[in-house]
Amino acid sequence: MKMSKTKLIFTGGFLGAGKTTLLQYVSGLLAANGQTVGFITNDQAEGLVDTQLLTKSDGIIKEISGSCFCCNYTGFTDVIGELLQDPKGVDVIIAEPVGSCTDISATVLQPLKDQLSSVVAMAPFTVLADPVKLERILDGEDGGMHPSAAYIYRKQLEESDVILISKTDSIPPEQLQRLTDKVNLVYPGRKVLSASAYNGTGIETWLDHVMESTVSGSRIVAVDYDVYAEGEAVLGWLNASVLLQGPSVDWDGFLAAYFERLNAVLGTARVGHIKIMVECMGNRYRIGNQTGTPDTLRFRGSAGISNIAQMTINARVESDPEVLEQQVFEALTQTVSDAMFYEIRQCRSLSPGYPQPVHKYHYVVA
Ligand SMILES: Nc1nc2c(ncn2[C@@H]2O[C@H](COP(=O)(O)OP(=O)(O)O)[C@@H](O)[C@H]2O)c(=O)[nH]1
Ligand SMILES: [Mg+2]
Predict the structure, then answer these.
(1) Minimal CA–CA distance to 194: which of 126, 243, 139?
(2) Which positions ≥6 away from 67 have C-beta within 8 Å?
(3) Which ligand sits closest to the CA of 15?
(4) Ligand 1 proximity of 167 Cβ (cutoff 6 Å)
(5) Nearest atom within ligand 1 for CA of residue 199
(6) Within 10 A of 294 (CB to CB), how many other CB atoms are there?
(7) Calpha distance 329→277 (Å, rounded)
């Protein structure tokens, strides 16, 4: 029987900040240390690339879809309960909230401390921030987002216990130092750390801190729900799954061509995050991630050449969800050659509704 409490590492940050990549790295580290990890992903609709990707790594994966943790708090605690009951004995639970969520301290962390502190030890609430977007936000810009989405971004940073500057491999050390100084100035009292999930720098320092510290949800910030709701509602949300068939298709080339067509069709619509996975039999896959303008597009993995593949599309774009759905499939029709077929297996597009959290605490639970 497990003697110590299960640790809950709750890690937020805006769409594309690098949460899943970091947390996947961390579950690998924990697993290598002999710890059993439970992972809870979250989205407004089912069919997450993140869940599919994590299934390929160690740990027990659960997805909460249809609503965020705050608005489906009971669904979230039910899943925590299932993980705690797991016969393997889960040592660490990692939870990644929806990237456009805020007021998490009042709506999730305080109730968790209130209700589950006898079985779960909460880690400090870390908010991840992509260095390029972060610097623009700190400089008072909107970082290429709708002003209300930028408001959410700021609120996320404000309610954190730890701010973790991500993707440090992509910026020079002087810029990191400057950014760290600015974050300390604007958000005093938070622990400011930095890491790269690409080369591993800083991750163990962050992990040691969150595993040891028990200060979680140390502040509740004032959030204007009308602005928050607008910041979420400007995003069209689409999750789709498509079966693709064709003679000896080079799927990596196909995915690159698809992104090119999609960006042409989307025009000037601002991208929050587009994440697409093409997967072939034999566990081969390629993922494309775009977290802003087309120059942010990155690929990894390889799906190789074959006759059949499954494509999972997660798109969060500042656009009407119906228009986004049309554009996603128009780009697909343009990309498939005459010799190819595609079949839409599942598709959900929506615009997030007004946030209605189950709980909203006005005081910090000790
Ligand atoms: N350069 C760099 N890119 C990263 C790093 N971590 C994540 N990314 C990229 O950032 C994009 C978004 O990552 P993801 O983990 O899906 O972000 P999430 O939306 O916050 O879960 C992807 O293209 C990742 O490959 C990092 O440490 N360095
Ligand atoms: Mg993610």
Answers:
(1) 126
(2) 44, 75
(3) 1
(4) yes
(5) 27
(6) 13
(7) 15
Ligand 1 center to 113 CA (angstroms): 30
CA dist list (Å): 250 to 107, 260, 279, 328, 330: 46, 16, 12, 20, 20
Tokens standing for residue 152? 């959410």
Show Cβ contacts of residue 49 under 8 Å, excluding neighbours closer than 6 positions: 275, 276, 277, 287, 312, 314
C-beta of 166 in contact with ligand 1 (< 6 A) = yes
* pLDDT at residue 47 in the model: 79
Q: Convert the pLDDT of each residue in 142-167 to its tens digit.
A: 988 999 999 999 999 999 999 999 99
* DSSP classification of residue 270: P
- Please list, in sequence order, all residues whose beta carbon lies within 8 angstroms of the beta carbon of residue 274, skipping any fewer than 6 positions away: 259, 262, 288, 289, 290, 313, 314, 315, 316, 317
Domains and CATH numbers, the chain: 6-231 (3.40.50.300), 237-350 (3.30.70)
Of 347, 366, 360, give the one whose Cα is nearest residue 106.
Answer: 360
Nearest-angstrom CA–CA distance, 30 and 36: 7
pLDDT digits (tens, 9 = 90+) for 130-148: 999 999 999 999 988 999 9
CA dihedral 181, 134, 299, 265 (to 10 degrees): -160
- What does DSSP assign to residue 108? I
CB 20 less than 6 A from any atom of ligand 1: yes
What pLDDT, in 10s, does the model give residues 176-226? Answer: 999 999 999 999 999 999 999 999 999 999 999 999 998 999 999 999 999
Indicate which residue's Cα is closest to atom 17 of ligand 1. 18
Residue closest via CA to ligand 1's atom 28 equals 167
Low-confidence ranges of the chain (pLDDT < 50): 1
What is the pTM for the complete model shown?
0.93
Q: In what order do the strands lie in the sheet with 271-280?
A: 298-302, 284-290, 271-280, 305-318, 235-250, 341-350
> How far does the centroid of ligand 1 lie from the alpha carbon of residue 366, in Å?
34
What does the mean pLDDT of the chain come to? 94
